[in-house]
Design a protein that fits this description.
about 325 residues, alpha/beta, Rossmann fold, 12 strands
């Protein structure tokens, strides 16, 4: 196993809801992330999947310390950065960067592409104008864009080209970790595979580590080594991507996989279609016990009582008493 690079340990992120004009008081809490633990090793891509509202993006922001954590610990390169202030964080900002979901919103419409890519270099390094131009040209070339793109404006680029600019900007400071917050969800299907292949090549060339946030399990299977599945702020299953996708144990993971369309019509008919009942509950008032039990067709009385903890099995971790018992049943001869 490669050296550990980044780690979340029992991290929770709560947002207070306040009411009152003169003396606002806390009346409720949005429990966006609840006791999440993740490890990312050097050169590894960890996928983080789940429905919208499951807490994936907040988890990524907590890892980058763009979001303060309520409880738990955030570590990077062996250092506890949980309570570091802005000036302390400045020293490691160049080592951990982010690519956002919407390539259009992440580009300043009043800034040429070359200036946008050069911005992190201006913050973290002292370079001459000629050196900046050379670095920007090399970065654009590395993400598959001609150096002439440096003179263009964001509105002149397609969505895929703008996302490549975002990747170039994230690479500018030669980071070790990149949080990819649904980087292909806003792109055309024809462009998604190109961006995924680019990210895979860059990881191999530069030895990068990724936290790849997505709802597309096919993309996770293509890019990632391990995967963690989140539901309503909690990790419900995690393990090697092949193990989890080929033989999911948690009912929620099984439902996610059944929602992925198959190109083979015969295989699609054989598998059938499973539609989850209801919608993801509000993090303001999560259900008692397992948060998934109101939508789970296999739920038992135990599921309605205490939230299940992640239990270590031979090939993964899973938070489901039914899945644990099934995995531990002896195989009949």
């Amino acid at each position: 196993m490669a050296e550990l690079l980044a780690q979340l340990t029992d991290v929770s992120v709560h947002f207070p809801v306040r009411a009152g004009l003169l003396l606002p008081r806390e009346v409720a809490r949005v429990r966006a992330v609840e006791r999440v633990s993740l490890d990312i090793h050097k050169g590894e891509a960890l996928g983080l999947v789940g429905e919208s509202g499951s807490g994936k993006s907040t988890t990524g922001r907590a890892l980058l310390r763009l979001q303060d954590v309520t409880t738990g610990r955030v570590q990077f390169a062996g250092q506890d950065i949980t309570h570091w202030q802005r000036r302390e964080l400045q020293a490691i900002r160049r080592r951990m960067t982010v690519v956002f979901q919407d390539p259009e919103a992440s580009c300043n419409p009043r800034m040429r592409i070359g200036d946008a890519v050069a911005e992190p270099l201006r913050v973290h390094e002292r370079l001459t104008k000629a050196e900046l131009q050379r670095r920007v040209g090399a970065l654009l070339d590395q993400v598959g864009l001609d150096t002439s793109f440096a003179l263009r404006w964001p509105h002149e680029l397609s969505g895929g080209q703008r996302q490549r600019v975002g990747i170039a900007r994230a690479l500018a400071t030669d980071p070790e970790l990149i949080v990819l917050d649904e980087p292909i969800s806003a792109l055309d299907v024809s462009i998604q595979a190109q961006v995924l292949n680019l990210l895979d090549d860059l990881r191999k060339q530069r030895g990068l580590s990724y936290l790849f946030i997505a709802h597309d399990l096919g993309a996770v299977a293509h890019l990632c080594d391990r995967v963690a599945v989140m539901y309503l702020g909690r990790v419900v299953e995690q393990g090697e991507v092949g193990d989890v996708i080929d033989a999911p144990l948690h009912p929620y993971t099984q439902a996610l996989l059944r929602s992925v369309p198959l190109h083979d019509p015969i295989a699609a008919r054989a598998r059938g279609l499973q539609v989850l009942d209801g919608e993801i509950p509000s993090p303001l008032a999560p259900p008692s016990g397992c948060a998934f039990h109101p939508r789970c067709r296999s739920a038992i009385a135990e599921c309605r009582q205490l939230p299940p903890e992640l239990a270590a099995l031979p090939t993964r971790q899973v938070a489901c008493p039914i899945a644990i018992r099934t995995a531990q049943l002896p195989i009949a001869s």
